[in-house]
C-alpha cells in the first residue's frame, strides 16, 4: 500500500469516538463536522486524503467504512457536500440488511462488542447515525410527541413515562414530573431515577433532601447514566448527602469521563494537571485534554497548542500552529497573537512577514476594542 494512504487505525479511533457520541447523544451537544475536523487536525491528517483512503479501503472485502463515508458526504469532509449521496449510502445499508443485531442494554446504556472489530463498530455507528439523521423529529424533538408518549406511558412503558415526566419537568410542573419519574423509576429507567434525584436535590416539588438525592444519583450512576456519574462525583466532592471524599469523587468523575462526558473529561484532565487531589501525571493530562480539545473546547485546544509549542519531549510546532490558526479564525485574541508570532518567527510555518503584519493588526484591533470597553464600563 502506498505511503500516501492513511493508517487504518485512525478509522478505528474515529468509529470508537463516534460510537460514544451516539451512545450518549442525549447528554451532549456536539457538531459532528467540527469534531471530525478536530480529530483529523490532531492526527495531522488531510481530510481529502482520509476520504480518498477510506473509499478505496471500503471497496476491499475485509473493510467496511460505509457509515463514515456517509457522514463525510453529509458534512462535506474531504469532499463536496452531497446529502443525497449520504442518504443513499445509509438507505442501502438498511435495505441490504448490513446492520447485524447487537446486544443493547437500555438500563446502563452499554453495547457489547469486540473492541477490535471495526466492522461491528461501523455497524453500530450506522444504526445511530441513520436514526439520528432520518428520525430526528422523534429522537430529538420529543416535546412534539407528547401525546404519543402519554398514550404509551399509560400502558406502563417506562421510557414514555420518563418523557412525560421530563415534559412536566421542563414546564416546571414538578409535582406531575415527580409522579411520572417515580413510575418510570419503578421500571428501572436510569434517566428518570436521575431526574427524581434532581427534584430531591434542588427541592423541586418536594422537600429538599440531599441524602435521598444522593441515593437516587447513585442508583442511576450504577446503571451507567453519565449525568448521574458526574453528580455522584459532585456529592462526594462537596459532601452533599454523603461524607466528603475527594478520592471517591475522582473515581466517579473518571467513570463519566470514560463514557464520553466532556465536562468530566475536563475535570479529570485538570486534576491530573494540578496534582492536588491525585498525583500529577502529564501523560494522563494529555490524554484527557486531547479528548476535550477534539470535542471543541476552546480552552483545551489552546492548552494543547501551548503544550506542543513548549514541551521539550513532545514538541510539535506545526501542530501547535494549526491549533492556534484554527482558534485565531474564531477570533480568539491569544491565538491571534500566537499566529502573528508564528508567522513572524517561522514557528510551525514558513516565515511570512506580510501575514505576520496582518494578524498583528487584527490583534491590536482586539486590544483597542477591549480597552475601549473597559474605559466605557
TrEMBL record:
It holds the Pfam family Sel1. Gene3D superfamilies: Tetratricopeptide repeat domain. Belongs to the sel-1 family. This is Sel1-like repeat protein.
Amino acid at each position: 500500500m502506498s505511503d500516501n494512504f492513511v493508517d487504518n487505525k485512525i478509522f478505528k479511533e474515529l468509529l470508537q469516538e463516534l460510537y460514544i457520541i451516539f451512545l450518549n447523544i442525549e447528554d451532549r451537544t456536539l457538531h459532528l463536522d467540527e469534531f471530525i475536523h478536530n480529530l483529523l487536525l490532531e492526527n495531522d491528517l488531510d481530510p481529502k486524503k482520509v476520504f480518498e483512503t477510506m473509499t478505496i479501503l471500503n471497496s476491499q472485502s475485509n473493510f467496511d467504512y460505509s457509515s463514515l463515508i456517509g457522514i463525510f458526504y453529509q458534512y462535506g469532509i474531504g469532499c463536496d457536500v452531497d446529502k443525497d449521496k449520504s442518504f443513499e449510502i445509509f438507505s442501502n445499508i438498511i435495505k441490504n440488511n448490513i446492520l447485524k443485531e447487537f446486544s443493547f442494554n437500555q438500563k446502563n446504556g452499554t453495547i457489547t462488542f469486540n473492541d477490535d472489530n471495526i466492522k461491528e463498530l461501523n455497524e453500530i455507528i450506522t444504526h445511530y447515525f441513520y436514526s439520528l439523521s432520518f428520525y430526528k423529529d422523534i429522537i430529538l424533538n420529543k416535546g412534539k410527541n407528547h401525546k404519543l408518549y402519554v398514550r404509551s406511558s399509560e400502558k406502563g412503558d417506562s421510557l414514555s413515562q420518563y418523557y412525560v415526566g421530563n415534559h412536566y419537568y421542563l414546564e416546571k410542573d414538578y409535582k406531575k414530573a415527580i409522579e411520572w419519574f417515580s413510575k418510570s423509576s419503578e421500571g428501572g429507567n436510569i434517566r428518570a431515577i436521575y431526574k427524581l434525584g434532581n427534584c430531591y436535590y434542588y427541592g423541586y416539588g418536594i422537600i429538599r433532601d440531599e441524602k435521598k438525592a444522593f441515593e437516587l444519583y447513585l442508583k442511576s450512576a450504577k446503571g451507567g447514566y453519565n449525568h448521574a456519574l458526574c453528580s455522584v462525583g459532585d456529592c462526594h466532592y462537596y459532601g452533599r448527602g454523603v461524607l466528603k471524599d475527594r478520592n471517591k469523587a475522582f473515581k466517579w468523575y473518571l467513570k463519566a469521563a470514560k463514557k464520553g462526558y466532556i465536562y468530566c473529561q475536563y475535570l479529570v484532565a485538570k486534576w491530573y494537571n494540578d496534582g492536588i487531589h491525585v498525583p500529577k501525571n502529564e501523560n494522563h493530562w494529555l490524554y484527557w485534554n486531547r479528548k476535550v480539545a477534539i470535542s471543541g473546547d476552546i480552552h483545551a485546544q489552546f492548552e494543547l497548542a501551548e503544550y506542543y509549542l513548549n514541551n521539550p519531549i513532545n514538541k510539535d510546532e506545526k501542530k501547535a500552529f494549526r491549533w492556534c490558526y484554527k482558534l485565531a479564525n474564531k477570533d480568539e485574541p491569544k491565538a491571534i497573537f500566537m499566529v502573528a508570532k508564528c508567522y513572524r518567527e517561522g514557528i510551525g510555518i514558513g516565515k511570512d512577514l506580510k501575514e505576520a503584519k496582518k494578524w498583528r493588526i487584527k490583534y491590536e484591533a482586539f486590544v483597542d476594542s477591549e480597552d475601549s470597553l473597559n474605559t466605557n464600563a
